[in-house]
Amino acid sequence: MTGAQTPRDRMIVALDLPSVAEAQAMTERLGDSVAFYKVGLELIYAGGLDFAKRLIGEGKKVFLDLKFHDIPNTVTRATEQIARLGATYLTVHAYPQTMRAAVAASQGSGLKILAVTVMTSYDDADLAEAGYGLAVKDLVARRARQARDLGAGGLILSPEELAAIRPLVGPGVDLVTPGIRPAGAALGDQKRAASPAAAIRAGADALVVGRPITQAADPRAAADAIVAEIAGAL
Ligand code: C5P
């Protein structure tokens, strides 16, 4: 990951909440404990883009999880809008045309493009149904290499993919990992979760954490504990 990253900068809190009012209340509770937020499709379609702008105005880093995939002209123009907003990360699907367009449009801004290789809801049978001839692990590896070669700033990966992908892409690509569960936290729908320390030791640059913080009785204490665990693993 480029630049000096404090343990706090490596924890990205997923604001998977249905309204700006709830997101605002959560960020107020979290205060200085959190420096980096992920805003995804649910909140985006409920006024989340303006809220993301406000967070950036308050000095927070923002990861817009918008998973772009369209013709290059549209991806270019949409990425330019996100770059102007001052976001730090934007996701796109790891198709070469899409990555090329997004990376070119982000040049000269502080925005890094994160490629989504194969969504973790897909298994080999789902890929075959969608017309692909590769197994998930082979398509993930192929797209990870393409993302690096096309200048993507990073990849979204599950914790179990970190060990295989880091050697393929080298140190210059940010590996960002959801599926994080501190010891004792409920798994929810995450089937292959890793602890913050395990994910950092396996090579993650940043962790995306949602419910273990946003549904904790004391979100701020939960966030502080995860930052401390990251610090201990670095
Ligand atoms: O609440 P939780 O910590 O499970 O939230 C994880 C976040 O990361 C959610 O925003 C979820 O959509 C996202 N994510 C994930 N697994 C993936 C890709 C994205 O959990 N494979």
How would you describe this structure in keywords?
TIM Barrel; binds cytidine-5'-monophosphate; 8-stranded parallel barrel; 10 helices; 234 residues
Topology:
Blueprint: E1 11-14, H1 20-30, E2 36-39, H2 41-57, E3 61-68, H3 72-85, E4 89-93, H4 96-106, E5 112-116, H5 124-129, H6 136-149, E6 154-156, H7 162-169, E7 174-177, H8 196-201, E8 206-209, H9 211-214, H10 219-233
Helix pairs in contact: 3-4, 6-7
Describe what you observe in this structure.
The chain starts with 10 loop residues before the first strand and ends with a helix. The protein has an eight-stranded parallel barrel, surrounded by five helices. It has one domain (11-233): Alpha-Beta Barrel (TIM Barrel), CATH 3.20.20.70. The model has no long low-confidence stretch (mean pLDDT 95). The radius of gyration is 17 Å and the shape is globular. The chain is built from ten helices and eight strands. The protein has helices spanning 20-30, 41-57, 72-85, 96-106, 124-129, 136-149, 162-169, 196-201, 211-214, 219-233; strands at 11-14, 36-39, 61-68, 89-93, 112-116, 154-156, 174-177, 206-209. By secondary structure, it is of the alpha/beta class. The structure holds cytidine-5'-monophosphate. Cytidine-5'-monophosphate binds at residues 14, 16, 40, 120, 158, 178-180, 188, 190, 208-212.
